[in-house]
Design brief:
61% strand
Length: 203
């Protein structure tokens, strides 16, 4: 579990801004996030990640800016936690390779029974990226809830990807909910690949 906070259990992180570049990152664990690697029953609220460029990433699994085998700009994995009113702005991922089963999200890589509420993601996936499950908000949603989230001006430029959606890459589970979410007209999705959708890649 790698991130500004590697593991959060039951606690709250709020009002935290992060900006800058992360390069030559090699993750040997399952969960990598710029802010948090693994969120377990805690809360991340009103946090902002801006102008982060992740390059030369090599990870076995989840990556996210906020929570990441699971990679996210906010969090790698969100397990029964809440991510509320967080935002990633002008974030990019380039020259990255992830093994089969990897999940990348602008907010959260893998959302497991968690809630993503009123978050916004502006993500660019640049050429040279090979990854399995990609999404503007959540890579893989398992019985999680996404409500009032916004994906804006996202772009996926000639990368090799599967399960691509501007809100969720892949969502399953009878308790999964995606409601009142919004994708702006400037977002672009790849023209080739498997399970590619404007909102959800596969449900």
């Amino acid at each position: 579990n790698q991130g500004f906070f590697g593991y959060i259990y039951g606690g709250t992180v709020k009002n935290l801004p992060i900006a800058g570049a992360i390069t030559n990152h090699q993750s040997t664990g399952n969960n990598s996030g710029i802010l948090c690697g693994y969120l377990n029953s805690g809360t991340i609220r009103n946090c902002f990640i801006t102008q982060v460029v992740g390059s030369n990433f090599h990870s076995p699994s989840r990556i996210s800016a906020i929570t990441g085998r699971n990679l996210g700009f906010i969090c790698g994995t969100n397990h029964y936690g809440r991510i509320v009113r967080c935002q990633t702005d002008m974030t990019q991922i380039e020259n990255a390779t992830y093994t089969h089963g990897s999940c990348f999200g602008g907010i959260c890589g893998y959302n497991d029974f968690g809630t993503i509420d009123s978050c916004r993601s502006h993500l660019a996936v640049n050429p040279g990226v090979t990854i399995d499950t990609v999404r503007g908000i959540v890579g893989y949603n398992h019985n999680g809830i996404l409500v009032a989230d916004t994906s804006y001006n996202n772009s996926y430029n000639k990368s090799i990807m599967s399960y691509v959606g501007c809100i969720v890459g892949y969502s399953n589970g009878t308790q999964s909910e995606i409601r009142s979410c919004y994708v702006d007209e400037q977002s672009r999705i790849p023209s080739h690949g498997n399970y590619i959708g404007g909102v959800v890649g596969k449900m």
